[in-house]
Design a protein that fits this description.
279 residues, single chain, binds S-adenosylmethionine, seven-stranded mixed beta sheet, 12 helices, Rossmann fold
Length: 279
């Protein structure tokens, strides 16, 4: 099964979902309401707010920063990045149906400025060299069979001194414990996790200067465990009946259970890197 099919197959008929959302939220939806379908990564909306604030600090001195979210999914992070003053935000994703959904959700969420959504492959980015001030990959390198090529592209399209932020699942210390399906893959052929040491070596081989390295594995396991112990009281997103299963299909509960297993047994870890392209 292709990546496009994995994320896009359940979104072929998205009109019904969008109509329901529009009538449930006549005055627009907020980021917390949309999070079950537009924050397709571990750590939920909180993780994206943290990424936005990390980038805000990096880009504080730039009046109109150009930012790329490579593997932007349904655009949850993209809309948060559009809150940064003067930002010019582009999302790139392989999955056209997710890009359509992202643009439709922009109508509901109404970020303070427009975002550009491009269908394309991060291994071969349709952008000019030295174009972006920052690039973020949030749980998207994990689907890319050739991370060297994707990181080469990041290096090419970043301006000198530009920032690269990775928030990624990585191979844990016990990869043999891995259970599928998981939210990012039906099976091993779609999952491309690398050890932290490999990722660091790949960044350094391209001259990226790694500014910060944060191991989020323990906090992500705690986040995942909290998901199971949440009280059954209706949150606003539950009232809208939004769930990642609308995108990932009826196997989502099993995928989410396997994520917990994989975190608990050391099959996967979660890392965040902030790196800079040399001047
Ligand atoms: C787990 S989802 C994460 C989406 C989003 N970053 C988020 O955190 O909500 C992975 C995303 O990466 C995209 N993707 C996978 N391989 C890609 C590639 N080679 N080029 C562009 N996007 C890709 C998928 O289509 C999917 O939207």
């Amino acid at each position: 099964m292709s990546i496009d099919h994995h994320y896009g197959n359940n979104l072929q008929q998205q009109q019904a979902l969008l109509s329901e959302l529009r009538s449930a939220c006549p005055n627009g939806a907020d980021a917390w309401q949309l999070a079950p379908i537009d924050q397709l990564h571990t750590g939920g909306l909180q993780a994206s707010l943290h990424l936005r604030d990390t980038l805000a600090a990096c880009l504080a001195s730039q009046p109109a920063p150009r930012i790329l979210d490579a593997g932007s999914g349904a655009g949850g992070l993209l809309r948060l990045l559009a809150q940064l003053p003067g930002s010019d935000v582009t999302g790139l994703d392989l999955c056209h149906n997710l890009n359509r959904l992202s643009l439709a959700l922009c109508q509901l969420y109404r970020p303070p400025r427009c975002v550009t959504q491009v269908s394309g492959d991060a291994h071969c980015m349709p952008f000019a060299s030295d174009h972006f001030d920052a690039i973020v990959l949030q749980h998207s390198l994990l689907n890319m069979p050739n991370p060297d090529q994707a990181l080469d592209e990041c290096l090419r399209v970043l301006k000198p001194g530009g920032h690269l932020v990775l928030h990624e699942l990585v191979q844990g210390t016990a990869p043999a414990q891995m259970q599928f399906p998981v939210p990012w893959a039906q099976g091993p052929e779609q999952s491309h996790l690398h050890s932290p040491a490999t990722l660091v070596a790949q960044l350094q081989a391209r001259g990226f200067q790694i500014r910060t390295t944060t191991d989020l594995t323990a906090s992500t396991l705690a986040w995942r465990q909290r998901q199971d112990s949440r009280p059954a009281t209706a949150t606003r997103s539950q009232t809208l009946r939004l769930t990642p299963a609308l995108i990932l299909g009826p196997d989502f509960p099993l995928m989410f259970a396997n994520l917990l297993h994989n975190l608990r047994h050391g099959a996967v870890g979660v890392m965040q890197y902030l790196a800079c392209k040399p001047e």
